[in-house]
Design a protein that fits this description.
CATH class of chain A: Alpha Beta
Number of strands of chain B: 9
Helix content of chain A: 40-55%
CATH topology of chain B: TIM Barrel
Structural class of chain B: alpha/beta
Number of helices of chain B: 10
CATH superfamily of chain B: Glycoside hydrolase/deacetylase
Order of helices and strands of chain A: EHEHHEHEHEEEHHEHHEHH
Largest sheet of chain A: 5 strands, parallel
Largest sheet of chain B: 9 strands, mixed
Oligomer: heterodimer
Helix content of chain B: 25-40%
Number of domains of chain A: 1
Number of domains of chain B: 1
CATH superfamily of chain A: Glycoside hydrolase/deacetylase
CATH class of chain B: Alpha Beta
Number of helices of chain A: 11
CATH topology of chain A: TIM Barrel
Distance between the termini of chain B: 56 Å
Strand content of chain A: 5-15%
Order of helices and strands of chain B: EHEHHEHEHEEEHHEHHEH
Chain lengths: 303, 308
Amino acid sequence: MKPDLNLYDYWPYENRPKITWPGGARVAFWVAPNIEFYEINPPINPKRTPWPRPHPDVNLYSNRDYGNRVGHWRMMEVMDKYDVRGSISLSVALLDHHPEIIKACADRNWEFFSHGIYNTRYSYDMDEAQERAIMEDSINSVKKATGQRIAGWLAPALTHTERTMDLLAEYEFLYTCDLFQDDQPQPVKVNKGRLISMPYSLEINDIIVYNSYLATPRRYGQMIKDQFDQLYEEGKDTGTVMCIPLHAYAVGHPHRMAAFEEALDYITTKPGVWVATAREIAEYYYKNCYDTCAADIAARKGA
Amino acid sequence: MTVAKEYMEYPMRRYGMDQDFYEWSILFNRKKVQWPNGARVALWITTDLEFFPLDQPAKPFKAPGGMVTSYPDLRHFTTRDYGNRVGIQRIWRVLDKHRIKSSVAMNSMVAERYPYLVNAINARGDEIIAMGVDQGKLHYGGMDDALELAQVTESLTTLRKLSGQPIKGWMSPAKSESWNTLKYVKNAGIEYVCDWVADDMPFELTAPDGAGKLWAMPHSSEISDRKIIIDNKHSEDEFVEQIQDQFTGLYKESEKHGGRILSLSLTPYIMGLHYRIKYLDIALRWLMKQPHVWVANGTQILDAFKKQ
């Protein structure tokens, strides 16, 4: 183990080069539905137990499945209403299990990125060949099912190895959602090629808000609006990124839908907001911001 | 470092589910359900009557609400028992006020210990759902088959004998099942279980080893006093608000997609407390003023559903 994987340089949140998003926007806004499959009887990873109870943990298993059978469709309807395309954090095996969901998302021109094969298979302790296997499986399976070459990665259940970022760059992923050090994208230091961190969220993430902060639906909605207001204000100086991560098994219950809808309404009706997918944000960043930001980071290193 | 070869293999990666208990199905693709008299939302209230033994085993896990301190944990034992003595009466008074019939999920040990409650349930015309033997006798993967069969038999035999009710519904203590629970309860004449929360509507389950079909009823783990007040630590007002929001969401959806079910789960030692009970009254008064509400128990809802 190491004290730091040295994945990025320290870069103070002050006097950075100004990022202006397309159309002069101050905030690049994206929504990341996690569309996940949790296995009822997965093999056991040495570092983490998939279910709190002995298999089959039928209550929690079925709670997760609620997202696919029920919640997803409510969530998608609200996103359609506000013309927000999702960037899907996908358990890649769901291509096989639930092609109806994949088709509905592909028909809407939503973006897919990889969240591992299953959310009950963790990367901890994988050797290089094994980690390559899940990346190649992800690239090839999504390509075959949707025609899309995936550009992003959110490690399955946020489980990593020391080499994850280098491998992502080698496979020409554009962005990782695994790093939470900032509210702007920025270069990740990799062995070869380029990679950027894409602001995702472990704060206004419905799982964190509902299951860790134990918030009410109204507070969930308020937290999203408050975060947006702050990033919108700061975005006057240099463009920020705001992501709402979703899990249909959490946000998709009837008593929670109104809060989500109000939040989307609030954000998408403001001027100066670029509603985009993660790939679109990454591509814009590489083209317009990467070099300037990388130069600024290098210039200020140690200063 | 490396993980075992089987960790990289996916034998159940296939169309549909990775198990054979139920089939993959999208709620919004199914045909619309019509409830009796043009109702749009069935209101299904279930109250749990539980016995938590002082010597409750901690393995494989403790049922929610179980003993906390070292033995003898009189503090939690008696606060749970408060529900069976005082709390339940307060809940029943509120249900009576709003003329609501309900389901009662009951450990057979409660029926044995407190025959008064069985008689009161029968006098009210409420349905009993079998909730195993007690909260210390769990059903879980890896348990002894003969022990599980004995627990199912004891629960159902006792509850049927003491209540005279046919008992068609089952809720496992802590909503925990083994790989074989569905087989044993199906063989014992159970028609529906409350442990699977994958849906807002009933869906068909297949019991293993050819034991046949039964139903998963959408007993809510979300709109429950335990989840919202105890686990999430929300206030009573916020509990009422979320019940209302649940209804509003379901009601709106029912216009386009057919009948829905509002399942409200109550626990006497939680909702039946002095300072909380009035909020149940507030919630039910509001619900009963809404249009197109059909109050029913689990069996009535399932029967209406199966007729479609």
